[in-house]
Amino acid sequence: MLYQAETILKVEFYDLDPMNVVWHGNYVKYLEAARCDMLNKLGYNYMDMRNDGFAFPIATVDMKYIKPCVFNQELKVVSMVEEIEPCLIIKYTIFDNKTGEKLFKAKTMQICVDINTQQSVYEAPENLKKKLACCKV
């Protein structure tokens, strides 16, 4: 693991399905919120990537639903950067913030793309490497 951060989220009413649990598609939104928070804490967010001439679109998402999340539940999302080359791999685990019970886990893979050429880049941006070097877990 290269970097880890925790994000606290609250299950909102509009995230629920007719069975009164979080609709499965909303977990992707939780991952995005946690990923953005983690990158901000690292000091290298999507705006920094763009300013360096790179984008990191999602290529794959692998998710495992363990136990449903419910209205008003406070969630702790632990996000971990596992790799940055040849692609950005982030693993996530969602816990109930009060009980610590594991509810969900996922992994995303993002490909580094040069904004100008739209070509894949297999080496991480230097500024990302520098931020990670300063924040070793």
List the helices and strands and how they pair.
Layout: E1 3-10, H1 26-42, H2 46-51, E2 54-55, E3 58-65, E4 74-83, E5 88-96, E6 102-110, E7 112-114, E8 120-121, H3 126-134
Antiparallel strand pairs: 1-4, 2-7, 3-6, 4-5, 5-6, 7-8
Structural overview:
- Strand 4 (74-83) and strand 5 (88-96) form a beta hairpin.
- The chain is 23% helix and 37% strand.
- The termini are close together.
- It has helices at 26-42, 46-51, 126-134; strands at residues 3-10, 54-55, 58-65, 74-83, 88-96, 102-110, 112-114, 120-121.
- The chain is built from three helices and eight strands; from the N terminus they run E-H-H-E-E-E-E-E-E-E-H.
- It has a five-stranded antiparallel sheet with strand order 1-4-5-6-3, covered by helices on one side. A three-stranded antiparallel sheet has the order 2-7-8.
- The longest helix has 17 residues, at 26-42.
- The mean pLDDT is 97.
- The protein has one domain (3-134): Thiol Ester Dehydrase, Chain A.
- The protein is of the alpha+beta class and 137 residues long.
